[in-house]
User: Which sequence fits this backbone?
């Protein structure tokens, strides 16, 4: 089970930190990621952290967003800085292991200009 939180409304240039609490499995064996879906658009990849710790980012967020995890707390974070109106979307937490994907409920992020 994945529980995302931390969304909200900010002005352009602001920051938010999303959290995703994981339960029901061995957290360290999952790759964790964040995706987002803006109105009228398909869900898109934002960032991921592999179970071995490597991180990957969409080009649109490189240098502004940072994904991290706290294995003891079974939580993955997405620190979002220098937010832009184009970052407005519902953000979803994802857990992947051996081809199986699990999704949390989304959290809304709204960035005003």
Assistant:
């Amino acid at each position: 089970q994945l529980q995302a939180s931390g969304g909200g409304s900010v002005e352009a240039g602001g920051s938010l930190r999303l959290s995703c609490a994981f339960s029901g499995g061995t957290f360290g064996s999952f790759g964790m990621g964040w995706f987002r879906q803006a109105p009228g658009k398909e869900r898109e990849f934002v960032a991921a952290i592999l179970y071995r710790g490597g991180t990957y980012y969409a080009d649109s967020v490189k240098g502004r967003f940072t994904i991290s995890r706290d294995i003891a707390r079974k939580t993955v974070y997405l620190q979002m800085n220098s937010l832009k109106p184009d970052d407005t979307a519902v953000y979803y937490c994802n857990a992947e292991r051996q081809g199986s994907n699990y999704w949390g409920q989304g959290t809304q992020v709204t960035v005003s200009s």
